[in-house]
Amino acid sequence: MDLKKYSKSNFEYAKEAYANLGVDVEAAIEKTGKTPVSIQCWQGDDVTGFESSSGDLTGGIQSTGNYPGKARNIDELRKDFELANSLIPGTKKLSLHAIYLDAGGKKIERNEIEPEHFKSWVEWARENGLGLDFNPTFFSHPLSASGFTLSSEDEGIRKFWVEHGIKSRLISEYFGKELGMVSCNNLWIPDGFKDTPVNRAKKRDILAKSYDEIFAVKTDDRYNLDSVESKVFGIGVESCTIGSHEFYMGCAMKHNVLLTLDTGHYHPTELISDKISSVLEYMKGIMLHVSRPVRWDSDHVVILDDELKAIACEIHRGGFSDRVHIGLDFFDGSINRIACWTIGARNMEKAILWAALEPVKMLQKFEEDEDYTSRLAYLEEIKTLPFGIVWDEYCERCGVPSGSDAWLKIVKQYESDVLSKR
Ligand code: RNT
Ligand code: ZN
Q: Ligand 1, atom 2: nearest CA belongs to which residue?
């Protein structure tokens, strides 16, 4: 798309079209630009990480494809992300996992990680105007090989992972303090059974005890917000996931932490968009892991589909922007990884803008009046409003290319100059 194709007068026309429905386009653009989107660092290297000796990806998750050019070290990952960052509009955070520590090649056990091992990330984030989020890594480790971490019956193993969980909370708090933007610390564990267990309760008791210990350490809510992530099943963990949705509903309530809703972690016909207002009725907040499951939790790149728009609309309609922390979670190794970041994150931004441009007041009034005919009529009509013109304007104001021709050219150039030489 040609950047100059849409003149100011086209934007004025789009503004008018929305204004006719009572929508303030300027306010929508401003709101979108201020809504943080947390982008997962692990898309850049297929969830490998940079521990001194990194092994296979385990825990029932998989990155498939071997597109050339994946980041092999911290420097490459940062350079790659900087490029993606320059192509994505809005306020952004980078979500780090513990395995992305910068320990100068020294072996640091997971239960020994400290803020100092992430100091260079903080400096880099500051230079790049990014916030940070954190994730303890409970997989890809010899002590997770049995399939159990925080729910392990081996007290030594369990304690090791409890310590890891506590350390991660302190690192997240450090991020928030340093960068002046709250950091979310997302706890996901792979624990579960391949085949039908006969003592689910015991494992869940152990897991609950582990969280009691992890959350007994207090952190400052202004800097760190913990979140717990459930899952329905993983590869090799098909019959029982210890940290199920119901388990974490209770856990999040008990410990007053956020609940992470990963869009790939439910049965295929369940909609995350419907869960948002339900969860927020009783809980203080949600962390989203926006992903795209294709037949399973496949973590495909997020596209601008109806459910993505519905998620953003639910946040906007409910006035939940301050309580829903939007994060992405996908990792596709079969196409250019910088393009994955760019496409997925731009789509999330598009959905946020789409939601901000919805004539919520008008639609909600129809519903209040039980005029469901008008509600449906307008929900359909707004699909053909000049959204693309507003999106282009938003991108331009953020100083990023508005069309895929422009950004793709830059990514392809980098691919031939840099990625193809790796
Ligand atoms: C796994 C969870 C988890 C991971 C990341 C890498 O199914 O979604 O969030 O994807 O921590
Ligand atoms: Zn996730």
A: 188
